[in-house]
Specification:
This protein is mainly α. 71% of the residues lie in helices and 0% in strands.
Length: 118
């Protein structure tokens, strides 16, 4: 797991350095609690968690990697504006997106638990 986290952080740092100084101004998102973006975070996190579990990564590490990945993505959104780089950039850091990421993980974990009980 440590190697994966190091790789994610290095990729993020490399992108932020390459993109230039004006790209690194912190922005917060002015977003709502609902929408396609939030559904993407929910489904994406649930899918990432299940993908990690399916390749043999234990439960705690899968949760940690999924949430850390979501936080790294939000930091990228805060520092790299979509107006300059297109879809790769973001509209700012969003705690709401992170809440939906965590919700996706909790939902799929709950669904797995229910299926095991039944």
């Amino acid at each position: 797991m440590n190697r994966i986290i190091i790789i994610l952080v290095l990729v993020f740092l490399l992108v932020s350095i390459v993109e230039g100084q004006e790209m690194r101004k912190w922005r917060n998102a002015n977003d709502k609690w609902t929408g396609m973006d939030k559904a993407g975070h929910f489904v994406g996190s649930a899918t990432l968690y299940m993908g990690l579990r399916s390749i043999g990564i234990n439960d705690i590490d899968s949760v940690a990697l999924t949430v850390i990945g979501g936080i790294i993505w939000e930091v990228k959104d805060a520092l790299i504006p979509y107006e300059k780089v297109g879809w790769w950039g973001g509209d700012g850091f969003s705690w709401r997106d992170i809440v939906w990421d965590i919700g996706g993980v909790l939902f799929i974990k709950g669904l797995i638990w229910v299926m095991e009980v039944i």
